[in-house]
């Protein structure tokens, strides 16, 4: 079996859709601003997976013309939302110094790691009690596969209830998911029966 890899630049070239190049780091900042501003959500720019299916042309220029006729204000609305968030970043970037970065790293590495891992253990323990089954926390090799623990021998992953809605998910999880939502007085845990 032969395998080939198509890089994004090559895909764009093959589709006659030359991609715009940007200065180093700028797209990462724009992506972060967009994630915070939610500028390219379906309610702003439309549901792209449906729109591309409804599009009958084959060329980038045809797609652009068709899309803009369907959503004439979308690009401007998304741009404004993202640009506002970038302006927010500009207002606070000067506040970030070595001490703040040190505090952030310590909070992430020490506090959030401890609370996050113990948080998962508390959820595993409570769900296992509810199901009257044994539990265990995943080992590092299992964690690398997206598994947070086992309940009654079944692998589970513990995610916030907003996880499924996130774009650009970094991993594909192929086990039972236990979701949680933080509420004022604790957390709500949701899961399918095992």
Describe this structure in words.
This protein is an alpha+beta fold and 194 residues long. The protein has 2 domains: 8-93, no CATH class; 98-190, no CATH class. 51% of the residues lie in helices and 13% in strands. It contains 8 helices and 5 strands; from the N terminus they run H-H-H-H-H-H-H-E-H-E-E-E-E. It has helices at residues 8-14, 26-37, 42-45, 48-54, 60-70, 74-93, 98-131, 140-143, and strands spanning 135-137, 149-151, 154-160, 176-183, 186-190. The chain has a 5-stranded mixed beta sheet with strand order 1-2-3-4-5, with helices on one face. A hairpin with a 2-residue loop joins strand 4 and strand 5. Helix 2 packs across helix 6 (74-93). The longest helix has 34 residues, at 98-131. It is extended. It starts with 7 loop residues before the first helix and ends with a strand.
Write the SSE topology.
Blueprint: H1 8-14, H2 26-37, H3 42-45, H4 48-54, H5 60-70, H6 74-93, H7 98-131, E1 135-137, H8 140-143, E2 149-151, E3 154-160, E4 176-183, E5 186-190
Parallel strand pairs: 3-4
Antiparallel strand pairs: 1-2, 2-3, 4-5
């Amino acid at each position: 079996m032969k395998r080939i890899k198509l890089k994004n630049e090559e895909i764009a070239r093959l589709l006659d859709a030359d991609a715009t190049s940007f200065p180093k780091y700028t797209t990462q900042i724009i992506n972060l601003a967009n994630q915070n501003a939610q500028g390219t959500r379906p309610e702003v720019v439309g549901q792209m997976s449906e729109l591309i299916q409804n599009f009958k042309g084959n060329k980038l220029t045809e797609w652009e013309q068709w899309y803009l006729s369907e959503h004439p204000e979308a690009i401007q609305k998304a741009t404004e939302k993202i640009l506002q968030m970038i302006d927010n970043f500009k207002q606070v970037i000067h506040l970030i110094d070595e001490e703040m970065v040190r505090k952030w790293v310590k909070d992430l590495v020490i506090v959030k790691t401890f609370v996050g891992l113990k948080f998962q253990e508390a959820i595993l323990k409570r769900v296992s009690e509810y199901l009257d089954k044994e539990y265990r926390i995943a080992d590092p090799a299992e964690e690398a596969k997206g598994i947070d623990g086992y309940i009654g021998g079944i692998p589970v992953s513990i995610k916030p209830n907003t996880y499924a809605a996130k774009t650009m998910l970094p991993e594909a999880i192929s086990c039972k998911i236990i979701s949680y939502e933080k509420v004022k007085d604790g957390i709500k845990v949701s899961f399918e029966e095992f």
